[in-house]
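Reading a protein record of the kind used here takes only a little practice. An example makes this concrete, so a full record is given next.
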Amino acid sequence: MRGIAITGVLISHNLILDVWYGKQAFQIVPPWIIGLLFPLLIIFTWAGSFVLISGISTAYTAYQRFEKKVAAKKIISPILINSAALLLLDPVRTLIFSRPHLFRGEMTHSLFSKLIMTGQWGLPSPERLYLIGALPMIGLSGLLGAILVLCLFKNDKQRQRTDRHLRGLFIAGFVFSLLTVPLSYAIEPLIEKMLSSPSPHYIAAYLLRILGSAQLSFFPMGTYIFFGLAYGLLLASGKEKEEIDKRLRRYARIFFIATLLSIPPVFIFTKQPIRFLANIDIYSPTIIYFSLACITLIFKALVRHVEFGEEGKRLCFAQRTRWLRRFGILTLTLYIIDALPGMFVGEWFHHLFGGKALWTPLTEGRDAFMTNPFAIFTFVALMFAFWFFMVSLWEKRNFSGSFEWLMVKISGLFRKESSHRLDLRNNLDLEQENKPDAKPPSGNLPSG
């Protein structure tokens, strides 16, 4: 699932950010193209899938290790370390690697975007910190997930209450989604006030921004951690294939129903219902429930046909999707650095097909490249081919130098047992799973 998610991120970033320069896409792209791309636009709202996947992996691995009587400290410590590392990595991404962004009406640049987009060196402005990405959302969700896992799985009697825990996680997830959306809206003016005051409170504003008001803030995107933990618990609890399949189908149906039921109250209680539903800065519960329904159906298919599939089909799947699982291993690295080649190659396409001068801002808001289907398709295909071959070559080096590799090295300083996260035999060669000397999984489900 990580491979599927990051592939969607790479394609969407190339389209929205490198071709159309962000939000102005809706003013540039003809309506018929927007209609044609509508299914893809819906997928763009699936950023919470990374939190969901993290929750699945956390619950599944923790449950199995608690069953083996591993000490709670050894189980929870890696989760806390990895979550804290993600919180620290986001400023690195926004200050050094990411694309230019508007913040409070002004264009801000990272270290590399300044060079690539303007041809000049310049230190990033502090405002870049407030352009919150997905990493704090995943990090805070991981911290919450660690607490919940400790409460739910800490003893044998607790772990046997699977059905009660599943109901509790679902109720908590729905409550969280309904309460945190208005909280996120409430935080927005507070941040503006903090930054506009004669004595700006930069640190407090940054911490609030991580919690709410941004597209990928913890409020309400942390919603996904509750359902991810539920799905991981469902898999780890040892229920039969048919029972798991039935429950996932039921959960998807619940989310589709919740999507429909969430719409009428918006028209009753909000002054601008369409704006609320379509807000891409603070996702509405409607968008969250719809994305959860779609992701659950994908997860259900992977569980049914891969996790519990026949051995021959699993091996066939492993051979055909190796490239996708490579992407899944390097999700963090690809998310952090994908802007660099995207901006650089995108500049040349804007120059060759749109007449834009290299390394200069686009003054008129649009160029011919933005409405040239052939050029756009060629650009996206070229970027995908670039990452396909880069990741293939990186595999031969065991992904050394990647951010995943770095996190394994850092976390190794705080734990006695070694991490299997970059164990290629486990994560890529699924055919090794049933061999006697195969190592146990380390948070990456075979379907991931």
